[in-house]
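The authors assume throughout that readers already know how a fold can be written as discrete tokens. For illustration, here is how one protein appears when written out as sequence plus structure tokens:
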Amino acid sequence: MPSAVDPAPPAPAATQVRPPLSGVVVAMNEEAHIEACLASLDFCDELLVVDSHSTDRTRELAAACGARVIERDWPGFGPQKKFAAESAQNDWVLCIDADERVSPALRASILAEQARGFPDAQGYDFPWLSKYLGRWIRHGSWYPNPTLKLFDRRHGNYNEALIHEKVQLSGRVLRLEGDLLHLPYKSLEQHLQKISRYTTEMAQKAWEQGKRARWYHLLLHPVWKFFKFYVLQAGFRDGWQGFLLACITAHYTGMKYVKLYAMGRGGDQHTEDPGTFARDVGGPGS
């Protein structure tokens, strides 16, 4: 009798390729933040810092942390972040600001997805947890306020907005567990100064888009913003900081409409020079 033929051994399971990840930061005069920011990105395969002619030790500290540093003029948030993502060595990029930190929980979530090859999405967002005047803000419009900062640049990149830039992505976006920690303002004064600049830019953009403000916008929109932040979104649970932020949110909205209203009544209409704007509000991660 012929001998039995042993069955062919099973084919080896396909090995999941772990895609390399670039940690990308845009910065200007961030010596107080850059080391901690890059330390939170030390799990990335590459560290890249795009610096806008810092006059402090930002570039030197970044290089000492192992980052590749590119010095470049400041064209606005969107264009600079788009350039940074395009300059990375890897297609998967995690682009954060110098005043942001990847929390341990978020780090674990990213590493778990990376080990699987980022198989289920072309981008990932995660909650944005900001600290304001000594308190982590967990309510109002500030939280969870998910932000998309981890993505495959083959499927999208940042838009060209000078402020309030966003990633425009073709593909699926999933949410990861863990917070991206944010330390946005050194003081209340800095916050109010930034609001003044931002509302000028936003009013100018709205004007160019053909939008106009009516007198009732100056009253109704700020009142609604306060009520939404403080009551509907439970900003009251964040103590006096939550009340202050609700007031500032209303002020922010009111100033935008006041400036737009003034433009319609013959007020000044101008666009800030990007370099001046960056210097006045601190540029990236101010």
Observations:
- The CA atoms of residues 154 and 233 lie 36 Å apart.
- The chain has two domains: 21-182, 188-281.
- Residues 188-281 form one domain.
- The mean pLDDT is 88.
